[in-house]
């Protein structure tokens, strides 16, 4: 179980980690830059990198504590003596190559999920770690929420689990981003060759995964579904693994062509788990994990992390003994220990791991297991070309 720095408000002196951010899109603008500003007792943003000069100019103005260095060259940022740790929130196609560059520079890197799209690339990262003083910390922020950590303990103390449900059906991200108060912008001054390179790399990685790792027919539908599992799906599946372990099989998967919502039925040794996810146009964030046993039901409710102050809660529903009369009683408790959002808790844990030179809970080897799950789901949902 991971522990973290107790509070973001402590005034004890500490080492300030200098951060270089690669990729200045939505997540950097909506969350990471302002979060690092707020955690100024722990971090200072000293370098920004993006292919867009407009993004560099816009985001530089948002950095507190003095103007950062800027560059369009990731290697320049990674090798800079003014950078202690790297934050990767650029296109998925570059995560593995930039993570390896950071490891070669013996630096810790926090990489937004997915870390990689296939075994080949993630194994290259794991190999690079073996020769590095740095480590990769994957941004599965939901697994650092206080309520989630409490739920792990509650589920661990349960009697036989009967059933679990994992759900993440949300409205378009733009609904939440537009109300986040961060006034993020999109930029169009990308060179044509840079865009083409990114798209080509992404397609090659996805094709390689489907052909070589999963044995699934390569179609537009299967590639789109694989991308969804690696993006939206990775949050839920990663949290499911920590709470329940790995399923033994997939009994069925509904991955309909053109459908914005999908569902999967996992089999565990003694209970089933339903997983349902997708995107529609209703502006709500319906994300939760619920675990049932004979005497107790534990549920973790998530809200959008793009609007600060919305709590993650744990609800426990259980039978109680009335004691004085026949029949069973019932109680329901909703626990909110903190309003600190999962991203804040994740970055505090990242700080602790870096300063202590420790292995992260959500490291590269942990992220590799998600590829196992994507493989199981896709093979259940699409025709396999090989066994």
Automatic annotation (TrEMBL):
GO terms for cellular component: cytoplasm. Transmembrane segments: none annotated. Residues 17-140 form the Gfo/Idh/MocA-like oxidoreductase N-terminal domain. One of its GO terms (biological process) is NADPH regeneration. Pfam families: GFO_IDH_MocA. GO terms for molecular function: nucleotide binding; oxidoreductase activity. PANTHER family: BINDING ROSSMANN FOLD OXIDOREDUCTASE, PUTATIVE (AFU_ORTHOLOGUE AFUA_4G10190)-RELATED, NAD(P)-BINDING ROSSMANN-FOLD SUPERFAMILY PROTEIN-RELATED. This is Oxidoreductase family protein. It comes from Hyaloscypha hepaticicola. The lineage of its organism: Eukaryota, Fungi, Dikarya, Ascomycota, Pezizomycotina.
